[in-house]
Amino acid sequence: MAPSSVFLEPDNLLTPKEKNKLRKPVVEKMRRDRINSSIEQLKLLLEKEFQRHQPNSKLEKADILEMTVSYLKQQSQLQMKTAGSFHKSSQADFREGYSRCLQEAFHFLSLHKVRTETQTKLLSHFQKSQSAAAEAAFSPGSPSTLKQPSPKDTGTLWRPW
Q: Which carries the bigger pLDDT value, residue 104 or residue 61?
């Protein structure tokens, strides 16, 4: 029975270098299989894009990788453009809303004939704020000089009732 146990355990007879020689082709095959599987998944995910560029042609692995890189670059550029336009439109919306609010405040305060010191100061403050908003609107790229209310400031609203 002793000879069969030696036969069943060939690892004991192999040197580490020999073990690596035996393991290397298996590991390399597993690596190639992973690469091929991932390329096949890319091909399936972007199949419509590939058909649009090269219909009825057999794609090589390099073609699949190149077209994937190209597609991802396109998507990245498109995403940057839409994010930039969203940011610009939200700034424009804020300025438009702020202007509208100032107009309403001016209108409300102008309805009262009695001018108190508080009304005068408030009108002066609004005029300064409006001119700062107009300057910020006409100088793209410069940071906005308008202070947006922080959540902690909104808790202390003055109410007339």
A: 61
